[in-house]
Amino acid sequence: MRSALLSALLLTGCVAVPTPPPAPPVLAPPVTGVDREHEQLVASFGGEYRAPRTQALLEEITGRLVAATERPEKRYRITILDSPAVNAFALPTGRLYVTRGLIALANDTSELAAVMAHEIAHVTLRHAAARTELEARSALVTRVVSDVLRDQSASARIRDASRYEFARFSRAQELEADAVSVRTLDRAGFDPFGATRFLTALEAFGNLQAALPGAERQPTSLDRLATHPATTERIVEARAAARRIGAPGLREGDRERFLAAIDGIAFGDDPRDGLVVGNSYVNARLAIAFSAPPGFTLDNSSRAVLGASADGARRLMFDAVEASPGRSLEDVVRATWTDDIETRDVAPRRVNGLDAAVGTSIGRDWHFRVAAIRAPSGTYRLIVAHRPGDGGASAAFEETLASVRNVPQAELAALPRLRVRIVTAQAGDTVETLGRRMRTANPVETFRVLNGLFDTARVEPGRSYKIVAP
Q1: CA–CA separation, 56 vs 36, rounded Å?
Q2: How far apart are CA 239 and CA 14, in angstroms?
Q3: DSSP states of 234-259
Q4: Whole-prediction pTM value?
Q5: HSE value, Cβ hemisphere, 13 Å, CA-based, for 264
Q6: Helix (H, G, I), strand (E, B), or coil: what is residue 113?
Q7: Which residues contact 88 (CB under 8 A, 6 or more apart)?
Q8: DSSP code of 353?
Q9: Residue-wise pLDDT tens digits, 228-266
């Protein structure tokens, strides 16, 4: 949990042919002075993540790619971001950024190279400058119509049209960067189908995340204002570009070396920002924890911890609320609801040595149990929503509330940091047996996605695979 509204209850920015020797890394010169844009950007993504083996592989990949572009003289500096999000982006200055979450999703060197080639293409094609020019031209036209011609309605129409034009322009840039990156992969000796494989994993990972409780559902059709093409469209275009070069399987993706380079990389949320393990949640920075009833799935979103029972008939939210020291917990409970929801029976309570207040609210389609709890690190709110007539919902709420506690420092220090672990499949291993070793939500499906095991793909004895474990 890094507060949410009541409605919360109810995933860039890609015969064997011999591989050429690696080119030396092409790095930007040391930064002089204070690079504020870089520092602020890195801080917003959790800081820099240091993984020497992964960093070395990224620099080698980038060196080979840059040497194969139309601007081999361009210099780059690569930063791994300490974020579980799947993201990568580039600045015109030659700064390349890739999250540890994206690295964990890739399955071989060519897949990671496809991501880097895509971002390098944005730089070599000067897409940022083109977008800036388009924005400036649009702003100028709007200002002239508005200020000089004094036609506000025409100005509004032009402004709306410009938004659509900018979205179309950005989508075209993404597809252009994909096409260029596939050609660059080939020239640099990587598998050009690496882009297709990674985009397929990206789409599957997005679908998996969308299935988590509280996830924001995205429309399946492409919004007119979306700045990125649908991933499915990118997969089709990238596959077509790779097929114009050759057939699949002509080049290896260098999977084993890639997996060795990422073995041990951190995965998922940092315990300092909140960690979900099974049906329990703990936040090391806030020293607060709770457990949901059995059968609930929890998701640590940016606004709150959200949860749902398997059938969706019960839903849960746990978040931090702003409450001044003089504000009563009973008032926090009452302030949760809108005027059309009746609040009943708000009363004080003690929960594991913490002051709390508990209340009940009745809506037309949902009933709610809510608690406000004051801990040393702040005030928290627990809400359990259920359908009318659900006789067991009250017990589920009380069970969850009874688990809310302040966590001792000794326990916090022992919290596991989940990591990508590379294991070798043994005889008899299956997707299910290896998937059950995962410490994630939807472990078997997550194992499939992380290892690119789609459709009828099976585990092969003697082959390396990624699992997520402490």
Answers
A1: 25
A2: 10
A3: HHHHHHHHHHTT--TTSS---HHHHH
A4: 0.70
A5: 8
A6: helix
A7: 12, 13, 96, 97, 98, 99, 102, 115, 116, 118, 119
A8: T
A9: 678 898 999 999 999 999 888 777 779 999 999 999 999
